[in-house]
Design a protein that fits this description.
This protein is an alpha+beta fold and about 350 residues long. A hairpin with a 2-residue loop joins strand 11 and strand 12. The chain has ten helices and 17 strands. About 30% of the residues lie in helices and about 25% in strands. The chain starts with a helix and ends in a 15-residue tail after the last helix. A five-stranded antiparallel sheet has the order 3-4-8-6-7. Strands 11-12-10-13 form a four-stranded antiparallel sheet, sandwiched between helices. Strands 15-16-14-17 form a four-stranded antiparallel sheet, covered by helices on one side. The longest helix has 20 residues. It is globular and about 60 Å long. About 5% of the residues have low confidence.
Length: about 350
């Protein structure tokens, strides 16, 4: 680390130690672009903004190590200069988004079913636990499995297990070619076609259905994309890249509707889910975005038979509570919380009620 970043980490450690002694809750903050997610975190704001910069990046190794307070746009720009990218295509939801907040929230973009989730590309982390100790898990190569699963636990933990200060990530080359094919069709055949992509040797990197149009993004070599496009048919969409970017960042007209926004996650299936409100199907059928006034309870009852769960995604005024995992999983989460944060001062209540 640089001297300034090293100093910022030391200051943060002391801040956490004192909070643990005093029983003071801390609300961990990065760029604040995803503060609408989860439950309201009780506590005094505690920022990682001063811990910035790329620690190590060697394009030939396909690995980057970066400090948590580094802006996502800065990291993506650095990778782009070498023709590389973050494979999980994370949404930013604002210019101030940091890589620490991105990993802590565990969000992935339209490519999630085809390339993997954010946690799949986390190789190692440094973090400060609830005792103020600086811990390191994992490393910078895939074969280094010491603590690797612990590193992945930080993806989606929303700061409840530790304050991320440094993250090592696997990166990939940007595809040489990308093309979006569009098909006008009813929802049922669109759902079946999306599901079929998961079992076919096609360079599909995204599939979404909105307003009677199924869009499929193909990414890879020019030859592979051209062959797949010929096999699939449909119409080439000139503004395809823009669509996926607008979808990822929730800038499509669909998201501007006044009704509350809900995210429904489930296993891809041929059967189309008929839900109250306006629906956008993403992740090849594994994620439904729903604009609806139906409410959390009503939607949960509709999707539970399909193994789905509902998350309020449009702010905390929806009166939604998260779908709490089954007892065994919830107990495991609480045991992890007790091990990493015995005093319960890091983002209490943000991930699960009374976590």
């Amino acid at each position: 680390m640089s001297e300034d970043a090293d100093s910022a980490v030391a200051v943060l450690q002391e801040r956490v130690r004192k909070a643990a002694q005093d029983g003071e809750a801390l609300a961990i903050t990065g760029g604040g672009t995803k503060s609408f997610l989860g439950q309201v975190s009780r506590g005094t704001p505690c920022s990682v903004h001063a811990i910035q910069g790329v620690v190590h990046y060697e394009p030939t190794e396909l690995v980057v190590t970066v400090r948590a307070g580094t802006r996502l746009t800065e990291l993506e720009s650095t990778l782009a200069q070498s023709g590389q990218m973050l494979p999980f295509e994370p949404p930013a939801f604002g210019e101030g988004a940091t890589i620490g907040g991105t990993i802590a929230c565990g969000l992935s973009g339209p490519c999630r079913p085809y390339r993997g989730a954010a946690r799949d590309f986390v190789l190692g982390v440094r973090c400060i636990n609830g005792k103020g100790e600086s811990l390191r898990f994992g490393g910078e190569v895939m074969k280094n499995v010491a603590g690797y699963d612990v590193s992945r636990l930080m993806a989606g933990a929303m700061g409840t297990l530790g304050i991320l200060t440094e993250i090592s990530l696997k990166v990939l080359p940007r595809p040489a070619c990308s093309q979006t094919r569009a098909f006008e069709m009813p929802g049922e055949p669109a759902s079946e076609l999306m599901t079929s992509f998961l079992g076919r040797s096609l360079p599909v990197s995204a599939a979404a259905y909105l307003d009677g149009v199924l869009r499929v993004r193909l990414s890879g070599s020019e030859a592979a994309v051209s062959t797949a496009a010929g096999a699939l048919g449909g119409d080439r969409e000139a503004e395809g890249d823009a669509f996926w970017s607008e979808l990822k960042e929730h800038r499509l007209d669909f998201f501007s509707h006044d009704s509350p926004l809900w995210r429904i996650s489930l296993k891809p299936q041929n059967e189309l889910l008929h839900l109250p409100g306006k629906t956008l199907i993403d992740w090849g059928g594994a994620q439904y975005w729903v604009k609806s006034d139906a409410g959390f309870k009503a939607l949960s009852e509709r999707v539970r038979p399909y193994g789905g769960y509902v998350t309020g995604f449009g702010g905390r005024d929806q009166g939604a509570r998260p779908d709490v995992p089954q007892d065994a999983v919830l107990k495991l989460n609480r045991r992890l919380k007790a091990a990493f944060d015995p005093a319960g001062i890091l983002n209490p209540g943000r991930l699960f009620p009374e976590d």
